[in-house]
Amino acid sequence: MASGGGGDEPIQIMGAGLSGLAAAIILAKAGKEVHVHDIREDSGARFDGDFQGLENWTSDIDFLDELRGWGINPDEFKVTPFHEVDVIHPDDEITRAWSPKVAFRVIERGTAPHTIDQGLKRQAIAAGAQIHYNSRVKPEDCQIVAAGPRDTSAVAFGEIFETPLPNHVAFHFNDKLAPGAYAYLIVIDGIGLICTCLWRKQKKSERFLNETIAWYDQHYPELNRKPIKRVGGKGDFTINQKYTIDGRHYVGEAGGLQDFMWGFGMRYAITSGVFAAKDLLGEMTYDSEVRKKILPTVITSVSNRWLMNRVGDRVFKKIAVNWHRDQTKRQDGLPYIANLFRPDLKRKIVYSLFGRWMLKKVTTDDGRTVHRLPFRKARKRDVWDPSTEAQKVKEQWKQIRRGGATTSFGEEE
Ligand SMILES: Cc1cc2nc3c(=O)[nH]c(=O)nc-3n(C[C@H](O)[C@H](O)[C@H](O)COP(=O)(O)OP(=O)(O)OC[C@H]3O[C@@H](n4cnc5c(N)ncnc54)[C@H](O)[C@@H]3O)c2cc1C
Fold first, then answer.
1. CA separation for the pair 271, 208 (Å, rounded)
2. Single pTM value for the model
3. Is the dihedral of CA 332, 194, 177, 110 positive or negative?
4. I want to staple 369 with a disulfide (CB 3.0 to 4.6 A). Which of 40, 94, 206, 241 is the partner?
5. Is 217:168 a contact under the CB 8 Å cutoff?
6. Cβ(359)–Cβ(370) below 8 Å
């Protein structure tokens, strides 16, 4: 069993990703001896240059101000703020969501110096934390478990490419291209990412990516894609019976702290890492802080996911239209999205009556009871033949791959 961390004994953290490094920064800055262990060769190695959106809608506090308040410096990694996004409706209409506030920021994941992973790693090391890569430890020997996803509730696949298009983000509601979820386009400084998220398990899932890319080639002709590589990964969404067990704090996706609706998990990961560190410093109780500050939003996202699982393009269209109407009324598109994520009585009831029953009770290898969002089965409507354009995209990728380009997920995943 891990010892408390209240004294001078070294603190062991399992996982040098966002949540583990955030915890390490706080603890090392407070003068603790901190050891972070990761099974991979570097922080960010789970990703490979993917762009991700750091949301700014689950709280009224700007996330970068929150980071600074905790002593984490966001200037250590590249951040590109966005006030607007193309909203692509299921019938291909494109409207623009806009906010006078920074709605979200795009950061890069991976091992390059400007990624968020490396930015946090530098700060942890500068504060005195020791990071051990290719190091395998047992959860029982750690005070913080920050090892990311274990199982699969959903997956995302993307292609990274060169493009002359200026910085741009598009958010795409389309149940054919992205079953139960959404697809997106992100362009930052000449590099683009087209990604599709699948909340239903599919055979030959790469066809969804090819079809999505074909859609963007057709509707954004100025993209002029030159593919570099394909990337992807899984998400693990669980509600846990306990967040602290035998003095061990489960943070980030290892604690199931994810956005069940859309997978915006980075903010929860960093926040939970900070809370776990503050618990070890005697400043708060991790389990109750998670239940007070993070879980209500996560539970709201479970209700949203339950509702999303029941609908298709007709309701996605309604959401896109209502979002635009609300923005016209308020002259701000952010409150509509913020309200989707903020806890309210309606969603609390949906969670109690329906949402929680869609989760599957499982016992993890380390003996914890969690309720996991199962990776749903495909529906009849997910079976379709690829378009001619998507087949050309597939052929193009085959050629590029023969030239040595990499893909970080199996073709049949
Ligand atoms: C393709 C994709 C796109 C995404 N896009 C977004 C987005 O746009 N916005 C957003 O907010 N979120 C997004 N997410 C979710 C986000 O990446 C995660 O929520 C976040 O990384 C979770 O942080 P974490 O610290 O829990 O895990 P990670 O940051 O993944 O860190 C976990 C670390 O633990 C290590 N590890 C694993 N097993 C062990 C072990 N046994 N022992 C030691 N170390 C171990 C791993 O190597 C890794 O370094 C996306 C996820 C995917 C897969």
1. 33
2. 0.96
3. negative
4. 241
5. no
6. no
Query: Hey, what are 140's tokens?
Result: 């029982």
Does any ligand 1 atom lie closer than 6 A to the CB of residue 44?
A: no
Per-residue confidence (pLDDT) for residue 409, from 0 to 100: 66
Q: Which residues are paired to 360 by β-bridges?
A: 372
Q: ∠ CA 226-80-196 to the nearest 5 degrees?
A: 50
Token pair listed for 92? 């291909």
> What is the rounded CA–CA span in Å between residue 72 and residue 58?
19
From CA 245, how far away is CA 365, in angstroms rounded? 14
- The upper half-sphere exposure of residue 283, i.e. CA atoms within 13 Å in the direction of its Cβ, equals 10
Contact 381, 311 (CB under 8 A): no
Instruction: Tell me if residue 128 falls in helix, strand or coil.
Output: coil
Do residues 147 and 15 touch, judged by C-beta distance below 8 A?
yes
Which atom in ligand 1 lies closest to the alpha carbon of residue 158? 1
End-to-end CA distance of the chain: 37
Report the C-alpha gap between 263 and 326 in whole angstroms. Answer: 24
Query: How many angstroms separate the alpha carbon of residue 236 from the centre of ligand 1?
Result: 9
CB-CB contact of 209 with 157 (8 Å): yes
31 Cα to the center of ligand 1, angstroms: 27
Question: Closest Cα partner for 15 from 134, 145, 150?
Answer: 145
pLDDT in tens, 96-131: 999 999 999 999 999 999 999 999 999 999 999 999
Beta bridge partners of residue 244, listed in sequence order: 249
* Residue 1: pLDDT over 60: no
If you measure from the C-alpha of residue 380 to the centroid of ligand 1, how many angstroms do you get, rounded to a whole number?
31
